[in-house]
Amino acid sequence: IGGAAVSTAPLLLIAAEGDVPYPADAEAIRAVRPDAEVMILTGSRHGTDLFIDHGEALEAALLEFLASQS
Q: pTM, whole model, 2 decimals?
């Protein structure tokens, strides 16, 4: 978390809702980087689940984030 606090690069944090402790970690990072965007994919259990069952939502979040940076 310390490194995220000093970086000024755009930051998107994506976590699976059921993949403890990552959602809490994402919120802790946002506490030190209020400009960070956090996306918690509800109904998702783990990293591979993000790509298999929630690939469209993940892709949409990435594309939206990247578009907002240009």
A: 0.71
Question: What SS3 class is residue 24?
Answer: helix
- pLDDT tens column, 22-35: 888 888 888 888 88
**C-alpha to C-alpha distance for 3 and 20, rounded to whole angstroms:** 21
DSSP 39: E
User: What residues does 37 pair with on adjacent strands?
Assistant: 12
Q: Where are the beta strands (DSSP E) in 1-70?
A: 12-16, 37-41
Percent of the chain that is helix, strand, coil (3-state, to 5): 50, 15, 35
Rg (CA), the chain: 12
